[in-house]
Amino acid sequence: MLITKEIEVTSEKKNFRKIMDQGYKNSPTIFGEQLAKDLESWEPPPGEGQLLQYVDDLLITTQTQETCVDWTVSLLNFLDLQGYRVSQKKAQMVRQTVIYLGYEVSAGQRTLGQDHKEAICQTPKPQTVKELRTFLGMTGWCRLWIYNYGLLVKPLYALITEGSRDLQWTKEATRAFDQLKKALMSAPALGLPDVSKPFFLCSHKKQGIALGILAQNLGPYRRAVAYLSKQLDTAAKGWPGCLRAVAAVAINIQEARKFTLGQKMTVLVSHTVSAVFKAKGGHWLSPQSFLKYQAILVEQDDVEVVVTNFVNPASFLSGSMGEPVIHDCLETIEASYSSHPDLKDTPLEDADTWFTDGSSYVISRRRHAGYAVTTSKEIIESRPLPSNTSAQKAEIIALIRALKLAKGREINIYTDSRYAFKVVQAHRAIWKERGLLNSQGKNIKHAQEILRLLDPIQLPEKVAIMHIKAHQKVSSELEEGNMLADREAKDAAKGEVPDKDVEAAFIPDGKISVEGKAIYNKRDKKLSKVCTEYHKNKTKITPPVPRKAVITKMPAIPEVEEQITPVVTKIGPYAIKKCLGFEKTECTQAQLWMQSVAAAVIKEIGEGTFPAEICKIVWDNASDRERELQSQWTLVNFTYNPVTSKILRLPLQLILTD
């Protein structure tokens, strides 16, 4: 029944409002809260029954027709006394089947209303993204009744992500659209959850989607309570199939608990979930994910996991438990996702033992990096690395070099880097599986180096890569070798890097030029315009420079040359300033000159130039003296306020020393 509030305006006149003054957004919530408070004071007549409220919709359920009549009359009188009005048109009085919140509810079950299903199925094929989103929103409300809903709508969501406003329908998407309508029209009746009975959850995964059926016993069979469907996150999609089953079970349990309310639930799955989680969870899962799944699968007493061989919902709903499937998840993971068939994480017998280490540190604002490969007594190889090399990248490079040097040998390799150890033992396979993306769906760091591990790891005849704790007291040959590798990597970082490696330091991993266009905000564009106009009227600036040239000398401006002697280049919001005895000054004209240079360079060099390319250009055009002062080069952003004529100098980051 639809309830509206009767509001007294004067002592002689009453006004009925269906929408309160708070508007469409907040009125339902406020009205529902007030109605709930008023209903607390209602005393129902004798008899067993229940009153349910959702905003302005009320549902009375009783065991007998007489009790239902008594409760209905009592409630209507109470609402009238409280100033509410009931919509006679929408009221459904004393029925065994009613429409409540769009569902057709009867004894022990609920179905989708026929009118609701027909309205959705009569929707024509959407032609725009907005229309398709509307259609998916309507079907998503019915997803509990549609088996494999996530698989059916996957091609439709792919149309949305293409980026075009108008849809380009494919055969697969058209077939999915038709199948979704058919599944909706044939949607079965779902049982209402009965917390006095145990629950059964059949869980599986397919195409990166966790699928499940929640059911309860009904005689010799099981009746479905809900069909569950939810997409795995980006991280879980890169795990082995058996570990993806663990993620699917965890997701389905979380969704099923919305219906079970903490009652006992038996989870049926075709993988040895508990064994996989305990044995391989630490290798493949982050600490946060591991603790999350542990809390769901291990530490809850309302869940029992049973291994079965169900492969379709018909077998599950028939009531048969089935036989345990013959499938060793641990062996499958080892065989499918090992970086090398013989790669071990325990030492090999009668094999050489090597140690690797990478180092990256900053001295006098200049970064030094290097790596080393050693035995416990002698150095096999050590070299410096470009100054933009991080510690993690240096560790991976050290491991790559060790594998190449160990070609055709049986070798034990120790590293004190947890990052490098997990990359080679597990993460490399994860990232290869999901396209070099991290758990947030973004590109991972050091992607090229991780891919470069693919070939070298096949070179040794047998290889074992182990992790060893760093910075321990030397009490064994292993700790002595790790200490030697650490010391030699730091010493190697102090060496000179060949010229080609210096140039490579300015280029991002695997790229000669950075793709994309420079992005300027309104402030940048306004600033360039102000500076250009200022110098057109008051000062001569450097003539237009050739494309890809860099301004390295300051124009003759007598007013400022005694106060400031910088060498500046700026492109877009980026600037590299080499400080040669430059102190902070408030000379507005000097700073404006810098901005005019920026405007000239922007115009001539054009779009698509980023800091890595700027560094390369500046290095090529710098003098020997300027290169010696490389550690003083800073990436800065000058912001000019034309109203107050003040300059804000905002340092961003070191570009050539980081």
UniProtKB/TrEMBL annotation:
EC number: 3.1.26.4
Gene Ontology MF term list: nucleic acid binding; RNA-DNA hybrid ribonuclease activity
Every RNase H type-1 domain range: 348-494
Species name: Hirundo rustica rustica
Source superkingdom: Eukaryota
PROSITE patterns assigned to the protein according to its UniProt record, in alphabetical order: RNASE_H_1, RT_POL
Pfam family, one: RT_RNaseH_2
GO-annotated biological processes: DNA metabolic process
Protein name: ribonuclease H
Recorded family membership: Belongs to the beta type-B retroviral polymerase family. HERV class-II K(HML-2) pol subfamily.
Enzyme class, spelled out: hydrolase
